[in-house]
Design brief:
The structure is a homodimer of 698-residue chains.
Chain A: H1 9-12, E1 16-20, H2 32-39, E2 45-49, E3 55-56, E4 59-60, E5 73-76, H3 83-92, E6 97-100, H4 110-125, E7 129-131, E8 137-140, E9 145-148, E10 162-169, H5 172-184, E11 189-194, H6 203-210, E12 218-223, H7 229-241, E13 246-250, H8 255-264, H9 272-281, E14 284-286, H10 290-303, E15 311-315, H11 318-330, H12 340-349, E16 359-360, H13 370-382, E17 387-390, H14 399-415, E18 420-422, H15 429-437, H16 448-464, H17 485-494, E19 503-505, H18 508-518, E20 522-527, E21 540-544, H19 547-562, E22 571-576, E23 583-592, E24 596-603, H20 606-611, E25 614-618, H21 623-632, H22 650-666, E26 671-681, E27 688-690, E28 693-697
Parallel strand pairs in A: 1-2, 1-5, 5-6, 6-7, 10-11, 10-12, 12-13, 13-14, 15-16, 15-17, 17-18
Antiparallel strand pairs in A: 3-4, 8-9, 8-11, 19-22, 20-21, 20-22, 23-24, 23-26, 24-25, 26-27, 26-28
Helix pairs in contact in A: 3-4, 6-7, 10-16, 11-16, 12-13, 13-14, 18-19, 21-22
Chain lengths: 698, 698
Amino acid sequence: MDGEIGSLQRLFYPRSIAVIGASSDPGKIGGRPIDFLKRSGFEGRIVPVNPKAATVQGLPAFRSIGDAGQVDLAICAVPGKFAEQVVDECVAASVGALVMFSSGFAELGDEGREIQERMAAKARAGGMRMVGPNCMGVATMSTGMVATFHPAFAKVETLPRDGRIALISQSGAFGGLCVQMANNRGIGISHMVTTGNEGDVDVSDALAELAQDPNVDVILIYLEGCRNGPGLIRALEIARANRKPVVAVKLGRTEVGAEAAQSHTAALAGSDAVFDAMFRQFGVYRARNIEEFLDIGCALSIGGLPANNRIAIVTPSGGVGILMADEAEERGLDVAPLPETVQRRFKELIPFAGVRNPLDVTAQVVSDLTLFEQALELVLTETDFGSVVCFLGAATNDPNHGKVLLESWDRVRAAHPDRLMIAPGMHPPEVARGLEAKGTYAPIEPTYGPRAVAAAWYFTQSFANAVDRPAVTAGSQLPKGQLNEIEAMDVLGAAGLPVITERLAKTAEEAVTAAREIGFPVVMKLLSPDILHKSDIGGVKLGLRDEAAVHAAFAAIMEAGATVADARIDGCVVAPMVSGDGVETILGVTIDPTFGPVVMFGLGGVLVEAMGDVSFRVAPVDHMQARAMIDEIRARKVLDGVRGAPPSDLGALADAIVALSVFAAAHADQLVSIEANPVLVRPDGQGAIALDAVVVTK
Amino acid sequence: MDGEIGSLQRLFYPRSIAVIGASSDPGKIGGRPIDFLKRSGFEGRIVPVNPKAATVQGLPAFRSIGDAGQVDLAICAVPGKFAEQVVDECVAASVGALVMFSSGFAELGDEGREIQERMAAKARAGGMRMVGPNCMGVATMSTGMVATFHPAFAKVETLPRDGRIALISQSGAFGGLCVQMANNRGIGISHMVTTGNEGDVDVSDALAELAQDPNVDVILIYLEGCRNGPGLIRALEIARANRKPVVAVKLGRTEVGAEAAQSHTAALAGSDAVFDAMFRQFGVYRARNIEEFLDIGCALSIGGLPANNRIAIVTPSGGVGILMADEAEERGLDVAPLPETVQRRFKELIPFAGVRNPLDVTAQVVSDLTLFEQALELVLTETDFGSVVCFLGAATNDPNHGKVLLESWDRVRAAHPDRLMIAPGMHPPEVARGLEAKGTYAPIEPTYGPRAVAAAWYFTQSFANAVDRPAVTAGSQLPKGQLNEIEAMDVLGAAGLPVITERLAKTAEEAVTAAREIGFPVVMKLLSPDILHKSDIGGVKLGLRDEAAVHAAFAAIMEAGATVADARIDGCVVAPMVSGDGVETILGVTIDPTFGPVVMFGLGGVLVEAMGDVSFRVAPVDHMQARAMIDEIRARKVLDGVRGAPPSDLGALADAIVALSVFAAAHADQLVSIEANPVLVRPDGQGAIALDAVVVTK
């Protein structure tokens, strides 16, 4: 399903559109796109194909697609049983892209899936891209290209405005609804794509293409599932490289939702926690609902990104200012105190104003509107804060006040074009649009100001820290099944994970030799694939300080092993007795059905397990992502040293995560899971070391 | 500031309103309320008071309030320096309530505060209530009583609709803004009260009064701080007893916000964590921002409360349905599978529909609008689910479809009046208002449906579980300062907290006697107020199994104590050696500046401390609230038993919390803090016991 980049040009910018199954009835699925296209400003050729009519809705009709001359984009609006024939004919006619409304394929079961796959294969073999089947189509608003039957495009008066936000949705209903809701809020879109069953073109293909489209600034994606995780990651990397923020709604945050999503879509759901981590890893902002989806998309398309996370808040209401400060702080922005100079000069203007940040212009602004401009000028000239949120209250409700404010806003914007400025307020729609046309997002809800700044700051960081994923070369063959403890530690040690030295001893003499090489004191453990709880039967001996103790321990361990009927005994593990300060952590690897090898990090101990306090990333990860994983757990503070403990060696821990992730990626085909537990993270400068590990291969 | 209930009747329902400092200029603060009242439908007497004019804005004016006949409510719109005289005159004229716009009091410092307190005292002594100073006034929409100068009430066309939501705000700007935003969304209000400096009437007074007003269904409160925590709790208890949901915005969720709030308002901020816990304890729903504040308030005023937490979701878009299911699940609702019968019968209607829950009416609903009604009827007849959220998509955008849908909705509602029904959708405003008039909340954003159901379910529970707070009688005198370990355990033991038996021994013989009574093995510890880390100097001996060991330990401990210069040595503590299974927890008490004695619960251990994973309640608490505290910590699962550990005795733990909370409330005046740590919670049926405690008194 990974198309070549650029191969969707004829889909998004066709010069001619054929409708196969064209209907004279503008209410029918085969009639709607023609009806829409006639009134949407599309300047290309509209080509109805209908063997039974000479004209359709006033346009000359063709008997077949083969007769219709060059066609960039064809819409298939015939019943499902005729769809495969349409594919054949379109390929023969060198159509560039086919949008298939027809349904009755993978969504109905295996038989339909087979036909769908055959159609997709034929299309690809013939150099044609196919969107759908079972989709609601595609639209490019800058050209009026509305190859869709969704009612959102039915009327000229309510036709979506041309904007710079592309919307890609697996669901046609969801996509259309978002277009309508965006329209309702005065938000324009550049494209809508609904991918339906994703026989050929999937969300990743559309994303990769639109991320390189100069008409697109922001991309909104709606996902129910994902069949091709690596493809999605590749597309996200293209978007990041092109500095196009991606905002996502993904279903299945909860177990109930995940279950419903799984049954609703044919795609594998995978683990939502992994999906969520992947979003953070590749710089996707995940929205909770449609409101946030559109709001953040809109804000990003208007305002640019802040240079730093310091935010100034200007407000005519102390209370609303603090509400915004709470929101900003909670979302990781820095509501830093304004410099003394700013505070002093503003106190001169309004003696009783709050000036630390938020800057409170007070109700006095009602009698002196210039206070807004004075406050903004002070803040923007005297600080390098990356963003300013200025709540305008109901000031713009009075047309005269609104005019004055907009003029002053223009002056401020012109003087400080590099700042992110947001102006929430009870604006009449025309004022909001006026502000937005000049690069100032203007929501009603004041806290959406800091929320939007936080989202923009997220992308500033994401674009600056583009992941430099470590190189991975195919790994060597691993032993099959569950590796024994020594094999596991050997393999991970070879992969660059710091591990303790463990030796296998089959005799007491070998054990003594091993202990001497390792250095006393040592630990000895029974090595047997058949005995799980070795300490319960006396199969573990700690703190062995000399050769005599090792001798005795070997005998005792072998004896203990012999008490278990039918257990294979492979000998004894001799390992150093590790002591000293440190925090016990767990590093793990699992294979996600969607994204493949995934690395996991958490603290050791029952409490963390009970809370599921772990973080994930798709392997491999670089050092920066490994640090992000460490920072993400709720118990993060423990690694800073609590109750007088020293701070942990986070660099070494991150290196261990990177090494494990590279190993996991290199051996993804062979692995079932890895758990290095515990990994002791020592005080800063002293490293981290895995004390035990389980590696399971296929 | 606690007025008697009922004493604000003349404030909210005056038959006559005087404006002192009445202005002929309808743009001035002293002119606006007259201008507003003339056009707001107020049928009572409007009485301008102005010594220099015979008429004001066409109404006969009076020289002084004393000449004006009976006045229920007076507005003071004169400069601050004349305000105190106005209070005197109003008291003399038997005015019922005075709304003081004038500013320049507590908000400017101590001098202003003094005058403000004097005015409040005079008012109270004279039987008059005072709102403000420094407030924006009061309004009752059912009578057009707009005693305010906020521009939200300036125009007849945009006058707030009469509704059943009361809005109480410490900030005038915030209150007025909320009224405007509510108006913008078509939400009506019953009252607006802005309390300003709260010289006399505070949020609690207004809340207690409006909670008993038959015109009020829901109360929204905006708090920057609170001077009188017990008063607020009393008012919340009245609201709960009257089944009036209270929704709050409170500033200071973050440290930055709390700091800003502290400097913005004269009120003590207290701890936000305690405030938040108090909200949960007394059934207040805390909103994050103005959008949620108004949305939840609106939903509650329209829809009633659900009988249980089972929610059915009906949707024409599978994706939106799952998005709503995710939201419902995450907010603690039960998206339970629909009964087999419902699923089967719906499958007969639409073979390929998702029917488990959400129930997906699919795009087929476009051609057959009755599917909505059929789905709803099935669900409501065949289940007892407390609520149904039915997303209507853009169906009501077509006027004909809208009409059909509203008619079918009426039928369904009439047949099932006891259910909570919410119908999100892209409704034209008149459709939304139509649905809402018939008891169906109709937001645009689909996830606001389950969010509103969750809020309503919160109140169902809160009203059912009204707190029966344990009786508290004034406690006996405690020793002053930091109690020694034995005193602390004695005091808490007497309070009903299960504690281990500890004995003081001043000689080896006393130690042996004590050990014999306690039973071997015992622990012995040095008792000294001057030595903190007793084990470091050898002042703690564990596992003493016989008399000889106790003898030896006493000598060793005394010797260890003697090595510390100038330390007072009070003897030796003899205590049982506690062993066996259990989870270590911490119970604590602090005195909050706003709410007084507060009880705290958390697990023991460094990890919990690092994460601040503790819960709070205002003391005293009953058993149910204690259980809620236990359930609230993130590490809650540990108490269920992880890794094969048995479940803990939660009943005994809750009893211990209750006992401690009652003790704290009884001794609030004397206490500084208590920490019982560890409190060992044993497996179910085996109780909980405090092993050590620190009690600090004043």
